[in-house]
Model the fold of this input.
Amino acid sequence: MFGVVFPNRSFPMDISSFTQIDTFHWVLDMNTFVGESYHQIGDMCIFLLNNFTLPPDKALAVYVQSPGCPFVFCGAVTLQRPSAVLSLIWPEPGGQLQLTAPDSAAPSAKIGVSVEDLVALPSLDVAAEKKIERMALKVGENLFNFMQSFCGVDGSKLVVPMDILDRWFKKFQEKAKRDSDFLKGFAV
Done:
């Protein structure tokens, strides 16, 4: 049905590496794969195998779970997008980590894969959207800081020159042309 690769960490793994929970859900226990250093696994490539046909209105959704936390959605693959490299954003461990028996194993991190309705999923690539959002916030902060240096105060209002956006944008473009690393500073 599907395979996964952890870049620089594994060979391709098929569905047999996962524990099947039911017809539509699989879990990979990270303790068996990397032990407690699961947070060092930052990316995962998931792909549909050639002989598997996923219905067009379905997706294979990928989730991560840190010990004591609920599963968090990371992204998905579909027939139109049969493979993807997903950033695994692990939540901070938390919750109640009490063991029920003295010989029980401690909770471990997990990666979950499930077949779900495509329309029910928020986005196919959560990490890419978060990176874009962080970049937009950094550009906005740059603009605010530039405008603030030219501000005047009129009662309870800040007053800026009418051409402030043009001046900021020209300065922004000039910096980007001069310094190839300038725009990289906005990427996270």
